[in-house]
Amino acid sequence: MTPSLRPASSLTKTRVAQVPFLNCLPFYAHWEPDASMELVDLSPRQLGTAALQGHVDAGPMAVADFLRQSDRFERLGHLGIATGKEAMSVLLFSQRPLWQLAGEPIGITEQTSTSGVLLRLILESRHNVLPARYVVGARHDVTAVLVIGDEALAASRGELATRYPFITDLGAEWWQWQALPSVFAVWTARKTLPEAERKSLTQSLSASVVQSLRHLPELATPLAGALHRTPAELQAYLEAFTYRLTPFEERGLERFRQLATEQELL
């Protein structure tokens, strides 16, 4: 459920989005917001909507939403969320292989922004597969379902994988297609946020990531049971992410922007 939000401009506190996924936890685990900031839980899609409506000042914004709102938001350094050859938590569960999904309905989780665009690029531009329709929120009466984040981690070991036995990692598909990393989110702040606040937030988040990567078992172990994974598997999952984007990840981001713009998906 989307939290009740008021326009950010009417608040005395800076509202910072907290995406409640394991792969976002390194940004928050060792960061103590000061009294001028307020954290609010938002899924990637909710964050994009809240940003558009002026209800949030900063957060790890889905790349697709940032590209749509770059006139109002700017990046916080090179902080973001990217993966190399596999994403492991951006998964399409289907009853048939990708190339047999032409003319079929596909469900898309309500949580996603970027991954929905990525799915369309992979199906329509890479494989020349045109589904009958994409249905946000559908889990039944569809031939495939896109899920992300912690839900995808758990689902690959659960009932969804039984109903939809073909599992496609969209990060792996992107890598095989473009030989570039997948960038799913970038940390952004509203351009009207004072420069001192943007700088302080960037430094705090960067420091939290450094500390978190030194103590990954502490992040992974408490969630192992709920996600149907071992602590070692979750630690390996977190180790696969890049949280400070290098020129290589930036190339992947730019290529995504180019393709999505060409296909009018932004």
Q: What would you say the CATH architecture of the largest domain is?
A: 3-Layer(aba) Sandwich
How many domain regions? 2
Cα end-to-end separation: 25 Å
Mean pLDDT: 93
Supply Rg: 18 Å
Helical/strand content category: alpha/beta
The portion of residues assigned to helices is 25-40%
Helix count equals 11
Biggest β-sheet strands, sense, barrel: 5 strands, mixed
Output the strand order for the largest sheet: 7-6-8-5-9
Superfamily at the CATH H level of the largest domain? Periplasmic binding protein-like II
Q: Encode the helix/strand succession as letters.
A: EHEHEHEEEHEEHHEHEHHHEH
Description of the molecule:
The protein folds into two domains: 8-85 and 181-262, D-Maltodextrin-Binding Protein, domain 2, CATH 3.40.190; 90-178, Periplasmic binding protein-like II (D-Maltodextrin-Binding Protein, domain 2, 3-Layer(aba) Sandwich), CATH 3.40.190. 39% of the residues lie in helices and 23% in strands. The protein is built from eleven helices and eleven strands. It has helices at residues 25-28, 44-52, 63-68, 114-126, 149-155, 159-163, 170-178, 195-214, 216-220, 231-239, 247-262; strands at 14-18, 37-41, 58-62, 73-83, 90-94, 105-108, 133-136, 144-148, 166-169, 182-190, 241-244. The strands form three sheets. A five-stranded mixed beta sheet has the order 7-6-8-5-9. The protein has a four-stranded antiparallel beta sheet with strand order 3-10-4-11. The protein is globular, with a radius of gyration of 18 Å.
